[in-house]
Each structure stands twice: as C-alpha cells, then as structure tokens.
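Lab meeting minutes (informal)
Scribe: AK
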Amino acid sequence: MEELEQPWRPTLPLCDKAIDLKAANKILSSAQTREKCLKIFQYASRLVAYVLLRGSLKDLGKHFEALSKNLSTARRFFKLFRFMKHFEDLADAKEEKDPTFQKLLYLDVAANVVADISEDWTSLEKVGFLRKGTLHPRTEYYANWCQLVLAVVEIIVTKIKADRAMEKASKPDASKEVLRKRTMAQLEFSKFLADLVKAFWDCELSFASELAFILSGLWAALVSTHKYAIRVLK
C-alpha cells in the first residue's frame, strides 16, 4: 500500500518543529514569547499610526498610536523582575577561557541588570504602583540611556559570538545545527544594532529618526520572538 502523504504544516524557521495547535499553545504559554508577541503588535501599531497621522485618516492614526502605548504598558507587567535571569549568565562568563572576552561577558551581565532595574523603576509609575509624579520627570529618559549603553555592550559581545559561529560554520563538515547557530548569532547581532537605533530616538538625540525607531523596534521584536519560540519548542 502506498503511504499516505502527510499534510503540509508550517515549520518555525531554523527549527524542524512544525507549528501545529500544540506547538502554538506551547509558544503562547511562555511569558517571554507572549511579551515579545505584544512587542510586534506594539511596533506594528506604531507604524500604522505613523503612516495614518501623515495622511487624511488622523483619527484612526490616533487610535493606533494609543493602542501602541497601551501595548507598551502591558509589556511592562511581563518584564518586571526580568533582571534576575541575567544572573544565570554568570556561569557562562566564568567558564569563558579568553580573559578579555570574559570581562566583556561580566560587563554584559552588569549592563543588563542595571538596564532592567532602571526600566522596572520607571514601570512602577507607568503601570500604577506609584502615583503619577512620584518619580522625577526625567527618570525614564535616564533609564533610556542605560538601554543605549546596554545596546553598545551587546553589539560588541554578539559580534564576537557571531564571528566564532562563522568560524565554526566555515568548516567543510559543519553540521546543519552549526549552520543554524551561525544564522541565529547573526540575527542576534542585527537585533542589537536595531536596539541601538531605537535607543537614539528614546534618548532624544538630534539625528534620531522616528521611522527608523519604529522599524528597528519591529525588527528587534520579530527576531526576539523567533528566538524565544525556538527555545520553547526545543
């Protein structure tokens, strides 16, 4: 008897896992993946608002702009106490044999912790734990500078990791898994470049572009959602 053909099912890029109902529920049950999905909707809404506010549909543009802000606030609930997970990275830093890169990894952990705590601090007022006006008016601005410094550190760290992955993938006998890790490392590097462009706008630098901010945020959201979805399905 001829074998029945299996129905086609979409698969997650750089992963052999099919996206069926069970996989979709597993992805959405992860707080990190759900938060990143909200980030996609946030910046997609902001992009729609950017276009509409410059056309004749300004009322609709204001709706999408408000939706983007609400989604941003919703994401803050998921990100509270996120700084704690970075302490797990200390083990990888300790095992690093290159002393220079090891110091960079420790710096990366420190930058992540400071940036996340500063964001949590602003979230206390944003989500209503603190009354409006409790924090200094420029608290979020200073927190954004922490994010800019973090983006620079992450770019340096992920560039080194991407170069290492490229070197392993350049070998003739490189496996599919090694090639995938190279692509993932390159995507991660591009994500932090996008974070830097986004930070320029958040830090109110004169050369920053709102459209570049929106597109960078959307790209970073797509890359992050993909990364965490793969982690969940492994």
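Next up, CB showed the second protein from the same session:
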Amino acid sequence: MFLEDNDMKLSKVVSVQGKIIGLLLLVLSCGYACTSVRLISEYDPITDEKVTELEEKVATYFVQLERTIGTDEAAYEHYQTFFDEAKVDLNTLSVRAAAVDKNRIVQEQVKELQNMLSNLEALHKMGFASAEQLPPLKSAFNSAFTAIIRLQMALKRGEKYEN
C-alpha cells in the first residue's frame, strides 16, 4: 500500500512537471514567434539627412560645371572647395555607418561613393573637353544616391534587408 501511494504521488508530480514544462515551452515558443530578427541596422535619420545634403551638393556641382565647361571657370581650382567638403561629408558618413551595428550595406554604399568622388576629382583635374562627358557621370552619382536613399526610406518604413 505504501509503495502504491508513493507511486501515485510520484506519478502526479511527474504529470504536473510535464504540464509545467509543456506550458513553459509553449510560452517561449509564442514569445519567440512574436519577436523579429533585424538583419540590418535601424533607420538612421542623420545618415538619411547627410546623404540627401551630399546629393544636393553633387547636383549643384554638375549644374555649375555644365554651365561653365569650356571656360576658365570650369578649372579644377574653382571646384576644389566642393571636393574638400564632399570628402569631409563622406568621411562623416563612413564613420557613422561603421559605428552602427549591422550596417554593412550602408558602409559599402558610402565606400562606393568615396571611390566615385575620387574618380570624378581625377577626371576634373585632367579637364573636361565638353559637356557631353558629364551626363554619364551625373547618372552614376544619381544611381548611387538613389540606392542609398531608397534603402534609408525602406528602413524608415521598417522593411528588413539581409546584411
């Protein structure tokens, strides 16, 4: 009789423990299902703002260069301030992108813009023969800026990207 009582008590304890473990697993599963995994950084309003400001500077550069090409005003020396400021802006963006977790895509985009600006500066130092040389360059910059801004807008809406 004593053994049967102990077996029944043990059976009830095991049954209760099993139910508790099952309930705990259910709660954990539900909690895990309700969480989201970020594969890329959150939206950064400062990056968005700085990229937009830099895009405006680059657009202004092309408008002014198109107007002055073929004159002494189109010489690199007249645009050196633009290149200096753009490099500072890109450095700021690069540091900021590196400081944010899960931000590899933005880091790569900024690095590509830095390369594009270096190439543009080298071309400008050599001199442009005509305004026809500018549209492909302007288009490349517009595409790069569009990609960065589009990503920032998607992050602002809460979309997820693999990083």
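CB comment: Residues 67 and 130 are 11 Å apart (CA to CA).
No objections, moving on.
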